[in-house]
TrEMBL record:
<feature type="compositionally biased region" description="Basic and acidic residues">
    <location>
        <begin position="158"/>
        <end position="170"/>
    </location>
</feature>
<keyword id="KW-0694">RNA-binding</keyword>
<dbReference type="GO" id="GO:0033290">
    <property type="term" value="C:eukaryotic 48S preinitiation complex"/>
</dbReference>
<feature type="region of interest" description="RNA gate">
    <location>
        <begin position="296"/>
        <end position="310"/>
    </location>
</feature>
<comment type="similarity">
    <text>Belongs to the eIF-3 subunit D family.</text>
</comment>
<dbReference type="Pfam" id="PF05091">
    <property type="entry name" value="eIF-3_zeta"/>
</dbReference>
<dbReference type="GO" id="GO:0005852">
    <property type="term" value="C:eukaryotic translation initiation factor 3 complex"/>
</dbReference>
<comment type="function">
    <text>mRNA cap-binding component of the eukaryotic translation initiation factor 3 (eIF-3) complex, which is involved in protein synthesis of a specialized repertoire of mRNAs and, together with other initiation factors, stimulates binding of mRNA and methionyl-tRNAi to the 40S ribosome. The eIF-3 complex specifically targets and initiates translation of a subset of mRNAs involved in cell proliferation. In the eIF-3 complex, eif3d specifically recognizes and binds the 7-methylguanosine cap of a subset of mRNAs.</text>
</comment>
<dbReference type="GO" id="GO:0002191">
    <property type="term" value="P:cap-dependent translational initiation"/>
</dbReference>
<dbReference type="GO" id="GO:0001732">
    <property type="term" value="P:formation of cytoplasmic translation initiation complex"/>
</dbReference>
<feature type="region of interest" description="Disordered">
    <location>
        <begin position="51"/>
        <end position="86"/>
    </location>
</feature>
<dbReference type="GO" id="GO:0003743">
    <property type="term" value="F:translation initiation factor activity"/>
</dbReference>
<dbReference type="InterPro" id="IPR007783">
    <property type="entry name" value="eIF3d"/>
</dbReference>
<protein>
    <recommendedName>
        <fullName>Eukaryotic translation initiation factor 3 subunit D</fullName>
    </recommendedName>
</protein>
<keyword id="KW-0963">Cytoplasm</keyword>
<feature type="region of interest" description="Disordered">
    <location>
        <begin position="107"/>
        <end position="173"/>
    </location>
</feature>
<keyword id="KW-0396">Initiation factor</keyword>
Length: 565
């Protein structure tokens, strides 16, 4: 026989609901209690059924509070281990932080597995707005298994997702404990911002353009053209190092200064998955958005938005994210160098501002257009933005009007059967006959990259985007490539096809600028979390990323992608 069971003494109060303050022992005096109202339905206080401790013997002294050990809500009634009544709201008659809300979260596969919440929605880091506060939180990428299993039935969500490798990425820059976190914004909030901006004013145009070679429009998979390696110089200095922007800032032309690749990524940031960072410098009433040398802005991502992106476990592989990024950057530059006719140059009003007299290598076809955008919210304020944009080539009009400006970009195929290909079809067999399937797959797997290109072209005022489809000669070798086809799209139509909202992008830019303008003069860093759809704003020391940090033993430079191209 066990020890006799006796109820503990109950403290009663005639004046208030809950225990009397005079009868509470010292050890429980400062612990808050969950209040409730007379209308609350409590149900059973305790459930003595199915309480079986280790060893199999029933312990009558064990108290099993309903809902605590079964995932139900307080007040729920059970019979035979099954819930009979629906969950009862405890403490509904008063607003308190102790109220329990059961949302039916079921986890499969333990830590790292996907989570499901209300309505069966799944949260993933790999898709836009994958984390919804208060509804569900996902911490794994979805499986790449088809929707139906081998027996023809519908695949259960989360089935065997536990065996998928986790995508835990490192930040684009190490976060120092000395930095001060000022703001944290999730992508769901950024996606709701809106600001309508009128057509810009072109302040000046620099550089020299070559004519696009229309022979590349006749390339097919059966008449492919090798990708050549050409030595050309193309400059992409950060905002603060641009002498033209420095002069415009000295003349107080605008409040905010940036380049098109920095601005376009910020405008399309809710689509981004890979980490990135933007240096923000505030000097008086001016802001400068800068990039780090060797950082994410100097490389092109591959299949960033794929449901099963390239694995990062083997960085030496030619199909790792770092190697693919280097390869895509290499292919993109060489295509833009090759697809122009250098015998038909177009000299712009001013020469290239970055080409010095000591340079010996020839310049690539490139024009820089400095454009002024009005981001003012009301007529009473003045908030202008100067952005340096880039044009890659032009199409002569033949005297029938103004010449057309082009932006040259490339999509590259590495191996349609490799892990991380994102279900892409084989280009050599599908590109000519089923181009729509190829394009739709690229739009899904590279949503962030394509949206960024569309916004860059709109900012520059390009009349068209020329996209080259480039593939490896051999899927197991990343040094030789061929051009399989080209395609021309209008920037505005391409942005609409990608569902890119320019007003949302301008709202993001203005919101980030307003946050920084409220801060004192100094240096700040906007960082995309490597594993969550969140951006954070840090206040950092003025000497950060200037080389002085390495002397203090703190490495700040971003790690360059590994691999060879």
């Amino acid at each position: 026989m066990g020890e006799p069971f006796s109820l503990p003494p109950l403290q009663d109060s005639d004046k208030t609901w809950g225990p009397s303050s005079s009868n509470i022992s010292d050890q429980f005096r400062d612990i808050p209690y969950a209040p409730y109202s007379k209308s609350d339905k409590l149900g059973r206080f305790a459930d003595w059924n199915d309480v079986e401790p280790r060893g199999g013997a029933t312990n009558p002294t064990a108290t099993a509070v309903v809902g605590a050990n079964r995932g139900g809500a307080p007040g729920a009634r059970y019979q035979g281990g099954r819930q009979r009544d629906g969950p009862q709201a405890y403490g509904a008659g008063t607003a308190n932080s102790f109220a329990y809300f059961h949302v039916g979260v079921a986890r499969r596969g333990g830590p790292g597995g996907p989570s499901r919440g209300r309505g069966g929605a799944r949260g993933t880091l790999g898709q836009r707005g994958g984390t919804l506060r208060g509804s569900f939180r996902g911490n794994a990428y979805p499986s790449n298994r088809p929707g139906a299993n081998a027996r023809g039935g519908v695949r259960r969500p989360g089935w065997r997702d536990w065996d998928k490798p986790s995508r835990v990425r490192e930040s684009s820059v190490p976060i120092s404990p000395n930095w001060s976190l000022l703001e944290e914004i999730d992508f769901s909030r950024l996606s709701k911002l809106r600001l309508d901006v009128h057509q810009p004013e072109t302040l000046d145009t620099y550089g020299r353009l070559f004519a696009y070679d229309k022979a590349y429009d006749r390339i097919t998979t059966k008449a492919e053209k090798p990708l050549q390696i050409l030595d050309r110089i193309r400059y992409n200095p950060t905002t603060s190092d641009d002498l033209v922007i420095q002069q415009l800032a000295a003349d107080n032309v605008a409040t905010l200064y940036a380049t098109d690749n920095i601005l376009s990524l910020l405008m399309c940031s809710p689509r981004s998955v890979y980490p990135w960072d933007i240096i923000i410098v505030k000097e008086g009433d001016k802001l400068f958005f800068d990039k780090r040398d060797g950082g994410p802005f100097d490389f092109i991502s591959v299949n960033e938005n794929a449901s099963d992106p390239p694995l990062e476990t083997d960085k030496e592989s030619i199909n790792s994210p770092g190697s693919l990024s280097l390869e895509a950057t290499y292919v993109d530059h060489n295509f833009s160098f090759q697809a122009v006719r250098e015998d038909v140059p177009l000299e712009l009003p001013k020469p290239n501002p970055f080409y010095g007299p000591d340079e010996t290598e020839p310049l690539a076809s490139c024009a820089y257009r400095y454009r002024l955008f009005d981001l003012s919210i009301s007529e009473e304020e003045t908030f202008n933005l100067v952005v340096r944009t880039q044009i890659d080539a032009y199409i002569p009009s033949g005297g029938k009007g103004p010449d057309s400006f082009l932006t040259l970009k490339t999509l590259n195929e590495f191996d349609s059967r490799a892990q991380g290909a994102g279900g892409a079809p084989d280009w050599r067999s599908k590109l000519d006959s089923q181009r729509g399937a190829v394009v739709s797959t690229e739009m899904k797997n590279n949503s962030a990259k394509l949206a960024k290109w569309a916004v860059q072209s709109v900012l520059a005022g390009s009349d068209g985007i020329k996209i080259g489809y480039v593939s490896r000669v051999n899927p197991r070798e990343n040094t030789r490539h061929v051009i399989l086809s080209t395609q021309t799209v209008r920037p505005i139509d391409f942005a609409a096809q990608l569902n890119v909202s320019l007003s949302n992008g301008w709202g993001i830019v203005r919101t980030v600028a307003d946050l920084c303008m409220k801060q004192p003069d100094g240096k700040y860093l906007l960082v995309k979390d490597p594993n969550k759809p969140v951006v954070r704003l840090y206040a950092i020391p003025a000497h950060t990323f200037t080389g002085e940090d390495e002397e203090e033993g703190f490495e700040v430079e971003g790690e360059e992608p590994e691999g060879t191209a």
